[in-house]
Amino acid sequence: MRLNVINPNTTRSMTDTIAAAARRIAAADTHIMATQPAHGPVSIESHFDEAISAVGVLEEVAAGDREGADAHVIACFGDPGLLAAREVTRAPVIGIAEAAFHMASLISTRFSVVTTLGRTGIIAEHLLDQYGFRHHCRRVRAAEIPVLDLESDSDAALARIIEECRRARDEDGVGAIVLGCGGMADLTDEIANAVGLPVVEGVTAAVKLAEALVGLGLGTSKHGDLAFPRPKTFVGRFEHLSGSTE
């Protein structure tokens, strides 16, 4: 099985962190293809960043299909370009926020999300509504750390995340914590040990869900709105997308 794990930002060290977490959890016969776009933001912390990064995600999905990927994982908690990515491939495409919400709901009736910045917490709230998990989530909390601090000031960032997770445990009445950033992929065990609750991290959750879908022989439906986009002419920098997308 070949899983294409896409870091939608362009920071190589974060791609490496995500890849290592995916490989630790993947089955022995699963090959992890860790990729990132050639162009785009170094971190994703806004709707604007997500919009720019979505094109790169679609390009990496197409490249993964050409290399024989059986499924794709979008390793950013905003799930940028998720539905568009599902349109352009028959393979399953899993966003890490959606995967984490599903997994957390299976082990606890209530969870809280701990993310990086308050503004990205609002984006997570939108996704909870979109995916139908609002009634499972008690609160979305922000440690108020820039995403790249997870790489450049990791000890201080981890301390802030653990502090916020403990507040969630003590104040929110939850049974599990969801980590709200792909850059936290290597922190699960330390946080769980410090907080004493199950901690769900989206990259690893998405990898196991992708393996399950491939094992079940299930791919993205091509009936309805996730059918391949209708062929049409594109101009300018997107001219190469003209014609069939299948």
Short description:
The chain is of the alpha/beta class and 246 residues long. The protein has helices at residues 12-25, 47-66, 82-87, 96-107, 118-131, 149-152, 154-171, 188-195, 202-215; strands spanning 2-6, 31-35, 71-74, 93-95, 111-115, 137-142, 176-179, 199-201.
Please explain how this structure is put together.
This protein is an alpha/beta fold and 246 residues long. The protein has 2 domains: 2-95 and 204-241, Rossmann fold, CATH 3.40.50; 97-203, Rossmann fold, CATH 3.40.50. It is 45% helix and 14% strand. The strands form 2 sheets. The protein has a 4-stranded parallel β-sheet, with helices on both faces. A 4-stranded parallel β-sheet has the order 6-5-7-8, sandwiched between helices. Helix 8 (188-195) links the parallel strand 7 (176-179) and strand 8. Helix 1 packs across helix 9 (202-215). The radius of gyration is 17 Å and the shape is globular.
Sequence-ordered SSE layout with sheet pairings:
Blueprint: E1 2-6, H1 12-25, E2 31-35, H2 47-66, E3 71-74, H3 82-87, E4 93-95, H4 96-107, E5 111-115, H5 118-131, E6 137-142, H6 149-152, H7 154-171, E7 176-179, H8 188-195, E8 199-201, H9 202-215
Parallel strand pairs: 1-2, 1-3, 3-4, 5-6, 5-7, 7-8
Notable characteristics:
246 residues; alpha/beta; Rossmann fold; four-stranded parallel β-sheet; 9 helices
Order of helices and strands: EHEHEHEHEHEHHEHEH
Tell me the count of domains: 2
Gyration radius, rounded? 17 Å
Structural class: alpha/beta
The side-by-side strand order for the widest beta sheet comes to 2-1-3-4
Largest sheet report: 4 strands, parallel
Give the class-level CATH name of the largest domain: Alpha Beta
Summed over residues and divided by their number, the pLDDT gives a mean of: 96
CATH topology of the largest domain: Rossmann fold
Query: Helix fraction?
Result: 40-55%
Strand content: 5-15%
* Contiguous helical run count: 9
